[in-house]
Design brief:
Elements lengths: L4 E3 H8 L3 H9 L7 E2 L6 E4 L3 H12 L4 H8 L3 H34 L3 H13 L7 E10 L9 E5 L3 E8 L3 H12 L12 H19 L8 E2 L1 E6 L3 E7 L3 E6 L2 E4 L6 H7 L5 H4 L19 E6 L5 E5 L1 H4 L4 H10 L3 H14 L6 E10 L4
Length: about 375
């Protein structure tokens, strides 16, 4: 073996990447070995590769997905630095959301009596700022699109509940309608009290049962996605399963606050596909999870700020309209009503291959309006 070559074990120790990780990165063309023994298949790495390997290790410690690491490693240092800065800005935004959830859970679990628990929940429903009274201004719209013979989506917006469900299969529309109807019990004049995530979880269980009844006889061939937000007065409780999406427009930036439960998204997360490759992948519409008794939806809290604009949409929008265009349309539309119709029109202008459902809601300060 040449002096400038290291065995995979020695290289792994030097760069703090496991041999298993190095073998994966070889398969993904992220970090190819300098030489592979033709007889044994054993991998050897050049000492000069340590710098790139350490960069990969550091980026993994940041939590950056492998597909994005591959892009960063291909850039010049200055461009790579800008890409890392942009990635970390998004991480900080998402971390702030998780921090708010942690604070809420600490308050809930620290309550020493039922009355204390109720008072904590009520304080959540009014506001973090005693002088600020927030409310939602909203609009929902669903469109058949230009190709599908029927609309299997259901979209709903009320003073407390925002929801989109994308049905599929022969009873897709009854499934999506049943899911939304079961959640509408939460759309009450008063802010919910008690543990809002528990309330939402209970309602989703009811929605799951309703969908199962609606698709009776169709089995796995029919069902629905579900993405919904429940307004407490200062926070939004999120439930999500499937490939419908929720976004927030804040400070001029558009942030997706849900993860697609799809085969291609799992491949992107593993670094086996880039987002660009996923857009044309033959399995891009294949769901990993939908609203069924055996699947667990994502549940969490989203802190709200005056000026936030939230979008819930089915994949009939997100698959054909790029995020940059969605951001521009949300930014330029003066009201939720004009926003949902502008987004629908954009999806139809892109071919309208699927049903299109949008819910847009603005967080406004009632004390200044």
């Amino acid at each position: 073996m040449r002096e400038d070559m290291l065995t995979i074990g020695a290289f792994a120790k030097a760069c703090r990447l496991s041999p298993k990780a190095l073998r994966l990165y070889d398969e993904l063309d992220l970090l190819k070995p300098g030489r592979v023994d033709p007889d044994t298949g054993y991998r050897y790495y050049a000492v000069a590769q340590l710098e790139q390997a350490r960069l990969v290790a550091w980026l993994r410690r940041l939590g950056m997905p492998l597909a994005r690491i591959r892009q960063v490693c291909a850039l010049r240092p200055a461009d790579a630095a800008r890409e890392i800065r942009a990635y970390w800005a998004r991480v900080e935004t998402e971390t702030a959301v998780r921090r708010d959830l942690a604070e809420f859970l600490v308050e809930e679990l620290s309550a020493v009596s039922a009355s204390a628990s109720v008072s904590v929940s009520v304080s959540v429903s009014v506001s973090r700022k005693d002088t600020t009274m927030l409310e939602l201004r909203y609009c929902a719209h669903s469109d058949r699109g230009l190709v599908r013979p029927a609309n299997q989506d259901t979209a709903y917006a009320g003073s407390r509940l925002l929801a989109v469900a994308d049905g599929f299969g022969p009873t897709g529309h009854p499934a999506s309608s049943a899911a939304i109807d079961a959640l509408r019990v939460l759309d009450t004049p008063e802010a919910p009290t008690g543990n809002v995530l528990n309330l939402l979880d209970d309602a989703v269980r009811g929605a799951t049962d309703a969908v199962r009844d609606a698709v009776d006889g169709d089995g796995e061939d029919a069902g629905t996605t579900l993405t919904a937000l429940l307004w407490t007065g200062s926070r939004l409780a999120l439930v999500h399963i499937g490939d419908s999406r929720a976004y927030v427009l804040r400070g001029g930036g558009l942030f997706r606050i849900t993860d697609d439960h799809t085969v291609v998204q799992s491949m992107i997360d593993e670094g086996r596909l880039t987002p660009e490759e996923a857009a044309t992948h033959p399995q891009r519409m294949l769901l990993l999870k939908a609203l069924t008794p055996t699947a667990t939806p994502d549940l969490r809290l989203q802190d709200a700020e005056p000026g936030d604009r939230y979008l819930l949409c089915s994949d009939g929008l997100s698959r054909v309209v790029p995020d940059g265009q969605i951001r521009d349309l949300l930014t330029s539309a003066p009201t939720p009503d004009t926003a949902v119709h502008a987004l629908t029109a954009a999806a139809n202008e892109a071919g309208g291959p699927d049903n299109i459902s949008c819910v847009v809601a603005d967080v406004v300060d009632r004390t200044t309006t």
